[in-house]
Write a structure and sequence with these properties.
Blueprint lengths: L9 H6 L5 H4 L3 E5 L4 E6 L13 H17 L5 E12 L7 E11 L3 E9 L5 E13 L3
Antiparallel strand pairs: 1-2, 2-4, 3-6, 4-5, 5-6
C-alpha cells in the first residue's frame, strides 16, 4: 500500500523546482515507489566547495529537497515545514551524480521523520541524513 495521500507525477514534482534552490543546484526527481522518493544532483562547480568535492551544504539541500517533497505528498489539505535536519558526511564525491533516496521512519498526524541516503555513481554512501517535518493543516 502506498504512503502517498497527495501524489504528484515526477513531471509535476520537477515543475515545482522552478525558481528555487533545487533548480539552482540542478536537483531532479527521478523515481517514486510506494514508499520512497528519489532525486539526483550533479557534482559540479555549483555544488562543490573550494577543494573540488561535494559541499556538505549541497548534500543537506538535496536531502531536505527530496524528503520535503515526499512529506508534502503524505498530507492532505496542508503542507510541511522542516523542524530539524542532520547529516553525517561519510565519503567525498568529486564528480558524476549523487542520488538521494528518502524513506519514512514515521508519518504521523503532526510530524514526519525521514531518512535520506545519498550515494555516488558507484553506489557508495556519501551522506546519511534525517529530516523532521511538521505537518501544517489548513483551518476548516
Amino acid at each position: 500500500m502506498s504512503i502517498w495521500k497527495s501524489p504528484l507525477s515526477l513531471e509535476k514534482l520537477n515543475e515545482t523546482r522552478k525558481n528555487t534552490l533545487a533548480s539552482t543546484l540542478d536537483i531532479n526527481f527521478t523515481e517514486m515507489t510506494d514508499h520512497s522518493l528519489t532525486a539526483t544532483m550533479p557534482v559540479s562547480p555549483k555544488t562543490c566547495q573550494y577543494m573540488g568535492i561535494l559541499h556538505g551544504g549541497a548534500s543537506v539541500a538535496l536531502a531536505e529537497t527530496v524528503a520535503s517533497a515526499a512529506g508534502m505528498m503524505c498530507v492532505e489539505g496542508g503542507y510541511c515545514v522542516g523542524l530539524d535536519i542532520n547529516a553525517n558526511h561519510i565519503r567525498a564525491a568529486k564528480n558524476g551524480l549523487v542520488t538521494a533516496v528518502a524513506t519514512p521512519f514515521h508519518i504521523g498526524k503532526s510530524t514526519q521523520v525521514w531518512e535520506i541516503k545519498i550515494t555516488d555513481d558507484s553506489g557508495k554512501l556519501v551522506c546519511i541524513s534525517r529530516l523532521t517535518l511538521a505537518n501544517q493543516y489548513h483551518a476548516k
